[in-house]
Amino acid sequence: MIKAAIMGYGTVGSGVYEVIKKNQVSINKKVGQELKVQYVLDLREFPGDPVMDVLTHDFEDIIKDDEVKIVAEVMGGLHPAYEFTKRCLEAGKSVCTSNKELVAEHGAELIRIAKDHQVNYLFEASVGGGIPIIRPLNSSLTADVIVEISGILNGTTNYMLTKMSREGLNYGDVLKEAQAKGYAELHPEADVEGWDACRKIAILTSLASGNQVDFHDIYTEGITKVTSEDFAYAKKMGCAIKLLAVSKKMGETYCAMVAPALVRKENPLYMVNDVFNAVCVEGNMLGASMFYGSGAGKLPTASAVAGDMVDAARHIGKVVTIFWNPEKLTLAPKEKMTHRFFVRMKSDAKDAKVFGDVEMIDAGIRREIGFLTPVMSEGEFEEKAKGLDIISMIRMEG
Amino acid sequence: MIKAAIMGYGTVGSGVYEVIKKNQVSINKKVGQELKVQYVLDLREFPGDPVMDVLTHDFEDIIKDDEVKIVAEVMGGLHPAYEFTKRCLEAGKSVCTSNKELVAEHGAELIRIAKDHQVNYLFEASVGGGIPIIRPLNSSLTADVIVEISGILNGTTNYMLTKMSREGLNYGDVLKEAQAKGYAELHPEADVEGWDACRKIAILTSLASGNQVDFHDIYTEGITKVTSEDFAYAKKMGCAIKLLAVSKKMGETYCAMVAPALVRKENPLYMVNDVFNAVCVEGNMLGASMFYGSGAGKLPTASAVAGDMVDAARHIGKVVTIFWNPEKLTLAPKEKMTHRFFVRMKSDAKDAKVFGDVEMIDAGIRREIGFLTPVMSEGEFEEKAKGLDIISMIRMEG
Lengths: 398, 398
Description:
Chain A is an alpha/beta fold.
């Protein structure tokens, strides 16, 4: 029997408990012995919930029990999750987490501490919820040099953009509706400003490069300025508008960005709608592959955490190699990224010529022009756009 | 330094050699030491090719070299691949393969032999070419009970069906064109009769259930009878026609089938076109996820084999758990599978009533009727269809 603990009995934590209870027989078979949840840590009480049998309010109960070999950290936030994780690893317990803030901030350090203590720090659930993407990147695509990663990594914003596209609604109305349905939080900034997607692309870029990417270095733009007029133009161009997190190899480093983007029908990300997430990975040998599924939600995320617990149980005493060193990767400056840019200006067509040979797009909106520039760098675009009366700009992907 | 050998210098074998040469620096970093190809085994000579430096015609050179710890078996076919693989594993060498025939036929046995000798038998490239699907099933989705797998697992037939759909061509013309382009073989039966997809769904069902599935037990129907008229009806229904390999959990076992199927727009498999492959996996907790990419081709397949070689190098002396026991799984009989059936008959509408409350489909084709039955079992359908003058029948998925 292998004993485990779950730290946090919120949405994901109660999901992990439910997944293990429900699939106990099949999980035990895959582990090769029983995986038993011995403790659930939460400060609250849950009267009438069977979890009361294993509930504790004291982290020390877990840390002092040498038989506990696996801990799921599903508390969220940086503190005390960081301190608890570190102490668990140092006490010889593997930790499995869905905590993207902590992984993005301290991933490399915690992986090193785990290795030093012959245990594992696993974080499949931190990106893409239930979609297996961390393990494929880490263990499957290892013969490839990763050339590009592009993903729809946030379910809330994808739900909102899908709704805007289908129903012609404005940002504000869609946000209200998403909040009413529980898809968006009362303080939705982490989602709508792109901060959540930013942490996730930082984690993926760290794994692709093998070095620590600081998410603060990644240019991040949310969806708050996307309007129904933008969607009218997008449809004219046969495109969807998606909040894309992109990371591209540039020489010996990567350049990463989170921003709304026009995605063409030919791109497999075009059809990723509603709360679904997807990640495209392009290797220099493999070409493109895509991983698609439920990027959030209680049970999909819990399934990924519990899958890591099975993996940790199979690797007691063995360290799973994770290629992520603490040395910081200096990202290439955003100004070097190249795209076509879709621009709306209060002007007439001849003013668009400053961007070169542009393609005019007519979506029937008066007193403005819309056009696509040729491919140019962000730096070049900024230079040319100086002093112009630009209403909005959206990058075109691929 | 870890020494490796490649058995077979055909399309995939030369690809593996190329991938390792090209990405040697990054592969060495991920392994933690140099991965060196010491031998390439092939009966032929390759004058002028740098492979001549490491070419051998004698398998004994590899087996006798105790320093060779990893062998890529990319010869294809059952013999001598089976004997060579067995001897390598027994000699303490891990084997990585793209050989789906061998994996489908002897997978469980070879995994057990590998385990007995503290080495690994890895076969990511045997299903879905470059798409990571074996490792996610085996190591990521372990907390879930797999409820359904459905996939487009053969690139040749998907290319042909895409072409038929887009250009309104007939099967025979598309086959000729695919053969001229090198996408289909001169003897195309393994692809067009569904045998290739059948072996692959047998492998996936074995991994989902943990027991050995005999591919001979899987009902398999190819694409040779699909006509341009079928596509006319499919378009009326807003569907694509795909060669689907499907495996569904039924009680304690699974029921599997390979056959052309109508796939609706809402299904993520709908947009999988040309030579691309994709696998949808539905877990009881996770919901649906999809893995998409290049299902065949020299470099994608070679990338998957080389990725397994990196994994084998990271696991020298450690066994990667693979949940696939030699006990045979008795599949549920095909007759128990349920779908809607699309039927074309030389008849008039009232004769369709034998199938119950059918939905008539008018694709403007004279002297026949086309209709969708309600959901019923294969057994029930066969019973009702007895003695009727049916032109064609295609199942509807999802």
